[in-house]
Amino acid sequence: MRRPILLCCALLVALCACGQRVETKPKLSAAAENRIRGQVYLQENAQVAGIEVRPSGLQYRILRAGDGTIPTVDDRVRVHYRGMFIDRKEFETSRDRTPEPAEFPVRAVVRGWQEALTLMPVGSLWEVSIPSNLAYGLDNAPANIGPNQTLIFEIELIGIVGK
Prior knowledge:
The chain is α+β, with helices and mostly antiparallel strands. It is 27% helix and 26% strand.
């Protein structure tokens, strides 16, 4: 009688051991990871001396104050810029395209740029940290920028075209 009980117990232990699952955390999507990393960066960056935080979440630091006219969303601006990820890896710069400043309508850029440009006097150089929801968000990012990425730009506002 003892033998069948011991055999059943041994089989039960073996079956339980074979069926054990190794608990792993589910892998986050690139969009979720980017959003979390961006939020952590923005929280830490907000504590840095000289960083201004807007109600929208946009952050900026004035590297050089300008004293010219401030553009509106209806203006066309002339700028030099450098775009970086939160690890400071550069993904784009206006100076690589041409030595001439880039020109574009304020309305044609992401919301974070629009907000920053309409606060900047001509002659300013700012470092702007743009939360993903004010940048390209989930679906609109170009190929070299992942979904939900917080972006950093150094923006030099050189002028307003026609003014």
